[in-house]
Design a protein that fits this description.
about 0% helix; 9-stranded antiparallel beta sheet
Length: about 350
């Protein structure tokens, strides 16, 4: 294992994995003494993220598995990058002026997370930075039906107790772009996240149909979707408004009033058991909150089989089906000469109270 020290960040080149499709999967471990991060060249996957508990003991706080074959076999997008367009696009079709494009249909007639060979399954070029790693991907014209050549850059950087995730992209023809990091978090290693606490700073949510396609915008006030004051995740999971999705799998609208490059607070999640808390900040107009309602049977580490509600996701993004619903906030269409920019900050602390 090769180690290089960069400005208090140790970069370790781990033993590569064999890709069953051919070639090798690179693995890099970053460690700044507070956080540690393992990244794969397969799918830009975050395989491990270690953060300290209230006693200062570090533990992995994301779900993952132990081989390239296992990552390729699972359909939960564990730790990977969702793209070229994250979340749902209705009827797997987009239209730009007089052109119509048929996208890959991989979810009940719709396109989910860029199609069945989305960015989470691509091999990314991976290089080291002084404080992190940089991954790049060239998505060709027609990739999963999306128009034009799209060039993507992704930086994972560690700074003290913060993980920064930054995407940039450009396209040579008009194309909708929405990239997000799809890690499943669990702040205390328990088998069930119902006792973890979430506060989500959004006063509006998209109401989806049975397949997650937005039908309307709803104010959260007085509903089970109102997480602004903070609740235990399990409080409403069995309520009737969440029955169709078996829990939370909803996109919340964030107020981006201070410009597209301003990071605003999105959510805080904490564990009374471990004392860990994660505060998420982002410049994206939406965030998908998902309580792993359909995780059952997904391969995990050391032969473990993951089950429902064993993790949770917060996915900053453009809004689902926004290319077909221009009334939704945010502009998902990236034009030639423009640059897509997604910046999110994940701040980890270990001062969450034991009694919340």
């Amino acid at each position: 294992m090769e180690q290089v020290q960069h400005n208090q960040v140790t970069v370790s080149i781990l033993e590569p994995w064999q890709d069953p499709r051919g070639g090798q999967i690179e693995r890099i471990l970053l460690d700044n003494g507070i956080l540690a991060l393992e990244v794969l060249s397969l799918g830009g996957i975050i395989r491990g993220l270690w953060a300290p508990d209230r006693q200062g003991n570090r533990q992995n706080v994301v779900l993952g598995t132990d081989s390239a074959a296992a990552y390729l076999a699972q359909k939960a997008h564990l730790g990977g990058v969702a793209g070229r367009y994250s979340n749902r696009i209705a009827n797997s079709r987009i239209n730009w002026r007089d052109r119509s494009y048929q996208l890959d249909n991989n979810f009940h007639g719709h396109c989910l997370h860029g199609g069945h060979e989305g960015f989470n399954r691509k091999h990314w070029q991976m290089d080291t930075l002084p404080d992190g790693v940089r991954l790049t991907l060239n998505s060709p014209d027609g990739d999963m039906g999306f128009p034009g050549h799209c060039r993507v850059q992704l930086d994972y950087r560690l700074a003290a107790n913060n993980l920064y995730v930054e995407f940039t992209a450009d396209c040579d023809v008009p194309c909708p772009v929405s990239l997000t990091q799809h890690s499943y978090f669990n702040l205390d290693g328990s088998d069930d996240i119902r006792q973890q606490h979430i506060q989500l700073h959004a006063d509006k949510v998209l109401v989806p149909d049975e397949h997650g396609i937005p039908q309307r915008i709803m104010a959260v006030e007085g509903s089970v979707f109102d997480l602004r004051r903070g609740v235990m995740m399990g409080t409403h999971l069995d309520s009737q408004p969440l029955a169709a999705t078996r829990g939370y799998d909803h996109c919340y609208l964030m107020e981006i009033d201070d410009g597209p490059d301003t990071l605003l607070p999105v959510a805080t999640v904490s564990s009374p058991l471990s004392g860990r808390a994660m505060r998420l900040y982002s410049n994206q107009p939406g965030v998908q909150f998902y309580t792993a309602n359909f995780l059952q049977g997904t391969p995990g580490r050391q032969g473990q089989v993951l089950h429902n509600y064993q993790g949770w996701c917060l996915e900053p993004q453009m809004l689902p089906d926004a290319p077909n619903q221009p009334h939704l906030p945010g502009n998902p269409w990236l034009l030639p000469g423009q640059q897509y920019h997604h910046l999110s900050r994940y701040r980890f602390t270990n001062d969450a109270p034991a009694d919340m």
